[in-house]
Amino acid sequence: MFTRHIIPCVTILLYPWFAHAQTGSTTETNSIIDIWYAKPSRAKCGTEYGCFSDPEVCEFTQLESMNNLTTPLCQIFLLHRQNPKDKNKIDFYLERKGIKENDSKNKYIALGLGPTKVMAGSSAIMCMIFGSGNNAQVLNRYNKGYENQALPIEDGKLGLSDTKVELVKDVDSLNTQKISCKFTKDKTLGNDKVFKLISPDNKKARLKRQDNTVPISTTTKTSNQSDTNLEKYHLILVEGNMNDNGEPKYHAQRKPHVSTQKFALAQLLINSAVVMGGHLSSIHILTKLHGIFMLIGWIFLVSVATLYARHLKLFCPQKTYCGGLKLWFVIHRSFNILAVILIIIATILIFVRIRGWSYNPLYLPNKVPLAHSITGILAIIFAVIQPIIAYFRPHPGVSVKRITFNWFHRLIGTLGLLLAVASIFLATKFTYFSNNDFIQSILKLMIAAVFLYGTAEIILWSIHFVRAYYIRNKHDKNKKSYDLTNLDGNNTNYVASNPTDVPVTPQNITAELKLNNKWELIKFAIVNLLGLLLLGLLIAMIVQLARA
Question: Which of 133, 148, 277, 311 is the most buried (most CB within 10 A)?
Answer without folding.
Answer: 148
